[in-house]
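Now for a concrete sample entry.
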Amino acid sequence: MDAALADRLADVDARIVDAARSAGRDPAEITRIVVTKFHPVSLITDLYALGVRDVGENRQQELTVKHREVGGLDDLRWHFIGQAQTNKARAVRAASDAVHSVDRTRIADALDAADDGSRLDVLLQVNLTDDPGRGGVPPTEVEALAVHVAALESLRVRGVMAVAPLDEHPARAFERLRKCADAVRRVVPDATWISAGMTGDFPEAIAMGATHLRIGSAITGPRPPRD
């Protein structure tokens, strides 16, 4: 077992606890997702041995391969956090317990059409920037998207997800996301998840109500070079 990995995980978890307590929140309300993008499958098994039960992937191909190779580790939950494409919806659904990046009706419909007999947890991705090319639905449209997705029988709207803009203080951006979460709960009252906060800004996300953090390099270390 990599002692450095264990140390990094323990350090991040301690920082999560500190941030939660500073915000007057119960740390048990917060799910830490370890993003294993570009890392080998062996990292996931090492993380599992350290107690990690939630891992995240950005790319469908990598998600599919790792999900297949890791096999049936009890209670390991797979979060797809990358931009979803309609032609890959079936593969994403087959390897995911939750999809964090539903940002348009077409991808929601494609995921629903890939119904495998179980309900899939989904989050509505919000674009917190002024760039329409970024992934995510504009905040003004998130409630309408929630209405559409909530009507799809095989999907379960759990909440919202966003990435903070690089040119803005993350707390301000996450405050807007929290308002989007309120809008979604007007449609789906139990959609309580807020997926926000990464290595550089998770304390601010926690202060603004994040329930799911997507943390990569602070735990995994530098990503290995790609072939």
DSSP finds nine helices and eight strands in the chain. The chain has a mean pLDDT of 95. The domain at 3-220 is CATH 3.20.20.10 (TIM Barrel). The two ends are 25 Å apart (CA to CA).
